[in-house]
Each structure stands twice: as structure tokens, then as C-alpha cells.
């Protein structure tokens, strides 16, 4: 398990908090593993009726730790089994999923929200998916879900051009339900999660299945994206983009 993922169960709600503020909540392998375990184990626990994803103050999630991408590009690896396990757990999760987004949501910090049922964002939140800027491709079935959510042209601007979405733009696009002051995000998201947890759980499950359909299509797209991602990590474009990024940090 990771010291940077806090899991807490209370009143039917499991809160999964990303807590790595010194890295703006960027995700590494052990964090993916802990989040996948928290999602997967909830399936067999009837007392957990809703899940809540949140981050440490100032950032929801700044995406994948780019040190991991750099290592993968140098060692002929792809997304990795642990990352895929997390993405599969997201796609196959059957418990209602709420997110509290305060601040940055970059890369997978944005794409994981596509698997949520209710999203509360702060007025300062912004959403960006810089995959192509890094010579890579989208993940988490976002190449399937974003065009469905906001249409092909808006999806192209977000996923390919890397144009950011403000909190209000994210609400207009359907990615976010509520935009609220930063200090109120966690409480608002928890209120929504508890409201969902208080509903008849079998009816919620059935309704959610009807609305979302089978997870097989999502998992198939996740795996296809992962194949492309693996190929792109070995490309000269991706290696040059990652080296340029780390050169700017020095």
C-alpha cells in the first residue's frame, strides 16, 4: 500500500484521498496499486454504498508522475500492469463514484473523472490532458468517452490540442456537476456521496448499470489505448518531449 493514498470508510462512504501534496498529487505505481485495491475491495463490502475520490488541498491530481514515464520510455515499458489494474478497476466499478476536484486535474486527473457519476469542482479547478504534447495518446478510455460527452471537435481540442477547460467550461461540457468555492468542495462532495449512500442500494446499482451499460467496451478501449501508449513511449517524439520537460525543470 502507499502512504500517499488515504482510505477511510464512514457512514456508507469510502473516501479515497490522494495525499502527495509535495508532488501536486501526481500518481506513481504504489499509489495506483492502493487506489485499485480500494476500488476493488469495495465490491464485496455491502456496507460501502458510495465511493468518493478527492485530493490534498491545492490539487486534485497532477497526472502520472512523469519520472515513471521517463523510466518507461528508457526501458521499453508501457503503462504497466498496476496502472492498467487501476484503470480496469475504474471501468468495472459498480459502486456510485463521486469526485471532489480542488485545483489541478491534469492527464489522468481529468480522465478518471469520466468514470465518476457526480463531480464537484472548485472555481479554481482546471482540467488539461497534455498527452499529445508529450508525444503520447489519451488513456482511461477517454478517446471513447470524451467524444461521447462533448462531441468530436471539443474532444479534439481537449485530448489532442491540449486546450484546458476551466471549471465553468467543464460544467458546460458535462464533465462536472457543481462548481463551488474551494473551501466547500469536500463538504459538498461528501453531502452528495451520503445522499447517494442513503438511497436503496439495489435500485441504485440497477439504474447505474442501465445508464452505463457493459464495462467490456471500456476495458477493450483501455487496453487498445495502452498498446498505442506503449508504442508511443518508445517513439523519438515522446522521448524528446520528456527530455525537454525535465530539462526545463533543471
Task: Outline the fold blueprint.
Blueprint: E1 5-10, E2 13-18, H1 29-42, E3 50-55, E4 59-61, H2 66-75, H3 81-92, E5 97-101, E6 104-106, H4 108-111, E7 118-122, E8 126-128, H5 142-150, H6 152-159, E9 165-166, H7 167-173, E10 178-180, H8 185-197, H9 201-212, H10 216-233, H11 236-249
Parallel strand pairs: 2-3, 3-5, 4-6, 5-7, 6-8, 7-10
Antiparallel strand pairs: 1-2, 8-9
How would you sum up this structure in a few lines?
By secondary structure, this protein is of the alpha/beta class. Helices cover about 50% and strands about 15% of the residues. It is globular, with a radius of gyration of 17 Å.
Secondary-structure-derived class:
alpha/beta
Could you give the distance between the termini?
31 Å
The CATH H-level homologous superfamily: 2-enoyl-CoA Hydratase, Chain A, domain 1
Mean pLDDT: 93
Spatial extent as radius of gyration: 17 Å
Q: So how many helices?
A: 11
Report the strand count.
Answer: 10
Q: What percent of the residues sit in helical stretches (DSSP H or I)?
A: 40-55%
CATH topology: 2-enoyl-CoA Hydratase, Chain A, domain 1
Which features does this protein show?
single chain; 250 residues; alpha/beta; 2-enoyl-CoA Hydratase, Chain A, domain 1; six-stranded mixed β-sheet; four-stranded mixed β-sheet
Task: Write up what this structure looks like.
With 250 residues, the chain is of the alpha/beta class. It is globular. It has a single domain (5-184), classed as 2-enoyl-CoA Hydratase, Chain A, domain 1, CATH 3.90.226.10. It has helices spanning 29-42, 66-75, 81-92, 108-111, 142-150, 152-159, 167-173, 185-197, 201-212, 216-233, 236-249; strands at 5-10, 13-18, 50-55, 59-61, 97-101, 104-106, 118-122, 126-128, 165-166, 178-180. α1 (29-42) runs parallel beside α3 (81-92). The chain contains eleven helices and ten strands. The strands form two sheets. It has a six-stranded mixed beta sheet, sandwiched between helices. The chain has a four-stranded mixed beta sheet with strand order 4-6-8-9.
Amino acid at each position: 500500500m502507499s502512504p500517499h493514498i488515504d482510505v477511510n470508510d464512514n457512514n456508507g462512504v469510502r473516501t479515497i484521498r490522494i495525499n502527495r501534496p509535495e508532488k501536486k498529487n501526481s500518481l506513481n505505481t504504489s499509489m495506483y496499486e492502493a487506489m485499485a485495491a480500494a476500488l476493488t475491495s469495495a465490491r464485496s463490502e455491502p456496507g460501502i454504498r458510495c465511493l468518493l475520490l478527492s485530493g490534498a488541498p491545492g490539487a486534485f491530481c497532477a497526472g502520472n508522475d512523469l519520472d515513471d514515464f521517463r523510466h518507461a520510455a528508457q526501458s521499453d515499458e508501457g503503462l504497466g500492469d498496476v496502472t492498467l489494474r487501476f484503470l480496469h478497476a475504474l471501468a468495472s466499478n459498480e459502486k456510485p463514484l463521486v469526485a471532489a476536484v480542488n485545483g489541478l486535474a491534469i492527464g489522468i486527473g481529468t480522465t478518471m473523472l469520466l468514470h465518476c457519476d457526480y463531480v464537484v469542482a472548485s472555481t479554481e479547478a482546471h482540467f488539461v490532458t497534455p498527452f499529445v504534447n508529450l508525444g503520447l495518446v489519451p488513456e482511461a478510455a477517454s478517446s471513447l468517452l470524451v467524444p461521447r460527452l462533448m462531441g468530436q471537435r471539443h474532444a479534439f481540442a481537449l485530448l489532442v490540442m491540449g486546450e484546458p477547460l476551466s471549471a465553468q467550461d467543464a460544467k458546460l461540457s458535462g464533465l462536472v456537476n457543481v462548481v463551488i468555492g474551494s473551501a466547500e468542495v469536500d463538504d459538498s462532495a461528501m453531502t452528495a456521496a451520503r445522499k447517494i449512500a442513503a438511497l436503496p442500494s439495489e435500485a441504485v446499482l440497477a439504474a447505474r448499470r442501465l445508464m452505463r451499460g457493459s464495462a467490456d467496451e471500456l476495458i477493450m478501449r483501455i487496453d487498445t489505448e495502452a498498446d498505442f501508449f506503449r508504442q508511443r513511449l518508445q517513439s523519438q517524439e515522446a522521448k524528446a518531449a520528456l527530455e525537454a520537460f525535465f530539462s526545463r525543470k533543471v
